[in-house]
Write a structure and sequence with these properties.
CATH class: Mainly Beta
CATH architecture: Roll
Structural class: alpha+beta
Strand content: 35-45%
Largest sheet: 7 strands, antiparallel
Length: 205
Amino acid sequence: MFTPSHYKNENSNEIKEFISHNSFGILVNQVDGKPWATHIPLELDIDSDGNDILVGHIAKVNPQWKYFEENKQVLCIFNGPHSYVSSSWYKEEEVPTWNYIAVHVYGTLKIQKEEALLVSLHKLVDKYEKDSKEPISIHDMSPKTMRQIKGVVGFEINIEDIQATYKLSQGREHDHMKIVEELEKRDAGSIAVAKAMQKQRINSD
């Protein structure tokens, strides 16, 4: 994706943390010569060689998986908070804009064997059940229920390139205090952008 240099984030630890907390992503490849996208959890993991990978699964009824070919590159999109920014919050006249965080991951995909798929499903459920009042576990599910695994295709993506855009009013630091103040009065996305702006400012000081 196009990212002006002053919006580019190359801090790998910060980007990994972002993906882990915004892991409901978009998997994009080609189906019959057309772009095809599926919204699914794409979890950051490490393979047996210590390399960062993404792990996910889709339903077999989704034709996208039939076009999963090894050594074919796919795109995974992760969206973070975003918000409209009114130029009425600036000290000087300027056009309005939009602040946002987005990460694109490119890599090659390979289909998992059922054993590896089961391991990844355990990790996925455990991650999101840990804060539940009465957490469930795949370990406790009956063989009849677990037969549903036959209806999904698991995969791993070897990460080849990561592009991260953190557009957070860089270049308008003199207006940051007012922008943050106004964003905090708006919706949840705007409040999250305000927090990201404050975190970025602390990290840059």
